[in-house]
Amino acid sequence: MSSAQYQALEPQTSDEDNEDIERRAHQNHHRCPTAPHPMVRKGSVGMGRRRCVLPLVVAALFFIACCYLTLSGDTRIALGLGGGSEDSEEGSHHELDSMNFRPLNESLHICSESYEDRRQFMQDKPRSDYGQLPVIYFVTPTYPRREQIPELTRLAHTLLHVPRLHWLVADDQEKCNDFMDTLLNRFGIPFTHMVSPMPSKFRNEKPAPRGVANRRAALQWLRQHNLTNGILYFGDDDNTYDLRLFTEIRKTQRVSMFPVGLIADYGVSGPVVRKGKVVAFLDSWVAGRRWPVDMAGFAVNLEYMAQYPYVNMPYKPGYEEDLFLRSIGLKINQIEPRGNNCTEILVWHTQTKSKKLGMVRLESKYLDDRSNLGALLSNLKLMGVASTTENEGRNALISKNGKEKPHSDILS
Ligand code: UGA
Ligand code: MN
């Protein structure tokens, strides 16, 4: 995200909102002495009887609430009571409820998938050498635009070198696209191609929650497959990934973090590490985010994530990473710093200049198989790169020996 975009976001969460988020979190953690926990507040008692049993009920509720808060997070998870909240670093599910998370219930349609790894060698070693390494689930939100196919091609050529990886390509559009299926299939990397469009009400928002519907669909896919073994990483289609990143994230026990290069004003965003522990964050846009990190700056172990049934990512531009990490109950002392204690850059937030669809003016009678142009332009159309027109704009320039030629000279 550019710094201008970050600034555009600033007013969205006022200091008041931030204080509110923190206050709500605070209330959740210090509710015990004053009010009973909402989870045990259910069920009402008749007015008359209430007066005489009230002290007893209050005492019982107080006792239960205190027991609830004294149980360790893990015990509560085991009891199905949601994520723990012993310290203020963590989001309880009540806190998350109050942040207007929509349950993960996206329209998710699988276009095609393959679990077969058709690559024989990766990084000069046969596939069998990689044995039982945990699988990296590499989630790529993507959307139709002129640069989509080149971006995915470039990314695929990085991923081709990475063993034991399942590529979840989640397209922000209504319909499947054969061209994309053929492309993904050709790489030989195990993949799932799904479509899950951004709900229309968010489309015209500025800024819009980019890549959220599709990442949410991928989270749903992981949950539906009950995957509790492997590593989740959100890898946008336009970033640049160093192959060492994959070795580093594969070791993730709970949540690992590392700096991302080319982010906003400082050209970097990432954890501050002291004596091997993450103690704070360096990022030029804080805006109340407890976890001010880029989407590409962390990885999550699926076994850890499975403990948090309220895992979620909100439609809240700029806060997707923060609230996702809160939804999985992250605590600062659990974070595993990677990339030589966060001193190296293993991923870059590169951005591609976007241009509108190309327009080539050519009469349709010339788009037959007398030349390559019919097939070429039809391919470009399928890729969403360029379109042909018969009457808009200037005639397409076709030249020979440095001189423009009439189309009929070359194509009839
Ligand atoms: C930055 C972060 O790196 C993203 O992870 C984050 O989602 C984004 O900001 C945000 O908060 O909006 P940035 O380069 O600014 O990324 O955004 P894009 O690269 O344009 O979009 C992020 C991802 O979402 C990309 O993979 C892109 O293909 C996808 N996207 C974008 C959609 O799926 N739909 C869209 O309408 C736009
Ligand atoms: Mn980007």
Q: Helices, strands, pairings?
A:
Elements: H1 3-9, H2 15-29, H3 47-70, H4 73-78, H5 93-97, E1 109-114, E2 121-122, E3 125-126, E4 136-142, H6 148-159, E5 165-171, H7 178-187, E6 191-195, H8 200-203, H9 212-224, E7 231-234, E8 240-241, H10 243-249, E9 255-257, E10 260-261, E11 268-274, E12 277-282, E13 298-301, H11 302-305, H12 320-327, E14 335-337, H13 339-342, E15 347-348, E16 358-361, H14 373-382, E17 386-389, E18 399-400, E19 403-404, H15 407-411
Parallel strand pairs: 4-5, 4-7, 5-6, 9-14, 10-15, 16-17
Antiparallel strand pairs: 1-6, 2-3, 7-13, 8-15, 9-13, 10-11, 11-12, 18-19
Bound molecules: uridine-5'-diphosphate-glucuronic acid (UGA) and manganese (II) ion.
Structure in words:
The structure is a single chain. The protein is α/β, with parallel strands linked by helices. The protein is 33% helix and 18% strand. The chain has two domains: 109-348, Spore Coat Polysaccharide Biosynthesis Protein SpsA, Chain A, CATH 3.90.550.10; 358-409, no CATH class. The chain has 15 helices and 19 strands. The chain has an eight-stranded mixed sheet with strand order 1-6-5-4-7-13-9-14, with helices on both faces. It has a five-stranded mixed sheet with strand order 8-15-10-11-12. The structure holds uridine-5'-diphosphate-glucuronic acid and manganese (II) ion (MN). The site of uridine-5'-diphosphate-glucuronic acid (UGA) has 20 residues, from strand 4.
